[in-house]
Amino acid sequence: MALLTVNNLTKNYDGKPAVNEINFQFQPGKCIALIGPNGAGKTTTLRMLSGLIKPSSGSVAFSGMKQNDDIRKYIGYLPQYPVFYAWMTGKEFLIYVGRLAHLSKEEANKRTEMLLERVGLTEAKNRRIGKYSGGMKQRLGIAQAMIHHPKLLMLDEPVSSLDPIGRREVLTLMEELKEDMTILFSTHILGDADEVSDELLLLHEGKIVESGSMEELRHKYQTAKIELRFQDDLVNYRAKIDNLPSVVTCSMDRNTIHVTATDILSARKEILAAASKEEWPLTSFAINRASLEDMFMKAVSN
Amino acid sequence: MQWMTLFKKELLENIRNFKWIWVPLVMILIATMDPVSSYYLPQIIDAVGGMPEGTEFQLPDFTPSDVVMMSLSQISSIGVLVIVLMSMGTIAGERKSGVSELVLVKPVSYTNYITAKWAAVLLLTLTALALGMLSSWYYVNLLFGELSFGELLQIIFFYGLWLALVVSLSIFYNTLLKIPGLVAFLTIATILVMKLITTIFSHLLEWSPNNISGYINQMLVSGNVPYELTGTAIVTTVIIILLVAGSIFTFKSKEMAS
């Protein structure tokens, strides 16, 4: 059964939809990336799921949630720019939000120590949050989101604002967490989504334009290309390649010939045969899979 | 349970940012200023050069209740300002900075959140008032004559109601707006407008909360609680309850992230 089911969820701001009748659902145990350019409605979607803003129409349902139940019990949420009480220590803050989420004193303490360990903040736990670095705050943010054993962890742009070191820390943490949690996170950096997520939701102008697992999407948007580089002038070979039976297009830039074909395997055979027969001075031969970037551009332009 | 967690956090925050030090100190300072300076007025005048030769200047003889009312009037101007300034960001500031987003995404009851904030500000306010009036009372007894402790408690009780109204107003605007400065401005503006209306329609609004210090004065002069003071106290309490209920209602209907 799906952990989360979203039905025709819509949010209007001043009559204009920021999120427009989106539908999706996902199974427990997955890591789902919500991808889209800035302003696509990612944050609005996550805020509606977390109960921070009310949908204009549509519904959100968790499996096992009763009617009129407080949705906030089931989710852990990290906003894009988490702000803490700078005067509290990391440990104090975690205990505070744990107690707010109805944990007992002992449980809040235990959970806090465990999560501090898990996100690697044990050493900094008695320091004021005001003195934390960006990466440390983000890790504390993830810890506070997990304090009450939520069914779903939602992270809004968890790595976009971090430097490379902080980014690596958080991505590694997410890799570990997805072993035993369901994670939904938004990002506009496609590489991050590629790295940690199992499933993708592509959001564009408030609508879901594409969704599916990484492999499904790869397959769907498969437009494998062959890239060729030569030691001498490319012009000599372009016409020859273009004339091969399975080649569809053949374009050229400064140092590479790009080939697309009806069937990539037969194109490879033909090119390699011609190359060995005529002794082409090849320096590189590569088959490229469609990148997430390509997929996204295609999905959006459709 | 959850309420206590929220309330304790407010107390801890106000200790760490020294509000529990400076708010009572300011109150003590402004409450003792008038009793002391009135008593030493002749010496002060001498010290700055004295009156010109031949000036006939009769210094008024202050009764203990006159002097304690002076302290009260200082608190109702500077003291109210201090309370408004120290409470202007208690909710608005958290919403502006975004920290409320992290707190309210946990299963926190809005009623708990608002009333815990209200209670924390009120506790600090009333403690500061009590300490201020206690020190004023000490100097009044020392320098001007007997004022009973029972009377002091009555003053603190009735005037505390007025300050509770100020706190409730501030909390109400805190739930309405995100800008602490605007909260302070509107709270003070509302108090002034209430005062204006009370003055204009004085015959209709006998029980207006703004009249409370006037009735406290009457109480000190006559020695018993005038029925107008009881009426005013009831009206003030009702307004406080309405304001807190209104704050909870406004906050519930608000979207926490926008």
TrEMBL record, chain A:
Keywords: ATP-binding, Nucleotide-binding, Transport. PROSITE patterns: ABC_TRANSPORTER_1, ABC_TRANSPORTER_2. SMART domains: AAA. Residues 4-230 form the ABC transporter domain. One of its GO terms (molecular function) is ATP binding. Pfam families: ABC_tran, DrrA1-3_C. It comes from the Bacteria. Belongs to the ABC transporter superfamily. This is ABC-2 type transport system ATP-binding protein. It comes from Virgibacillus subterraneus. The lineage of its organism: Bacteria, Bacillati, Bacillota, Bacilli, Bacillales.
From TrEMBL, chain B:
The chain crosses the membrane at residues 20-41, 67-86, 118-140, 152-173, 182-205, 225-251. This is ABC-2 type transport system permease protein. Keywords: Membrane, Transmembrane, Transmembrane helix. Signal peptide: none annotated. It comes from Virgibacillus subterraneus.
